[in-house]
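Note to self: keep these together.
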Amino acid sequence: MKNDTYWMSRALELAQQAEAEGEVPVGAVIVRDDVILGEGWNRPIVSHDTTAHAEIQALRAACQQAQNYRLPKSTLYVTLEPCLMCAGAIVHARIDRLVFAAKEPKTGAAGSCFDVLNTPQLNHRVSCEHGILAEQSSTLLRNFFRIRR
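Structure:
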């Protein structure tokens, strides 16, 4: 739990980076053996890339660092429940564990709307936990959208 809070705090820092760029404030960190393999924040607007979610950015960086498209024995920390695209990428990357802060009731694919990470038809399951620093993440998102509207 202590390490989870530490790494989620880093993901929240990255979410603030996204916010500073005018992006939806979501940050992600991939950790293996207490070392950051990759990190990212939302960048679809500035990069003109619909796939540039925080999780995808972190996965790309981690795969480069590991020199492998698979990331076994790693944990992904993200400030918001992943969408379908990101959940699929998490499964393909063979991430062992996902820890997310805030639930996404409209599009969440880690249990809220869908449970891609534990779909019996897929050949990999991802252990999933949520709620670590959820209030801080929710507040960051709420404030971002309040200002935008």
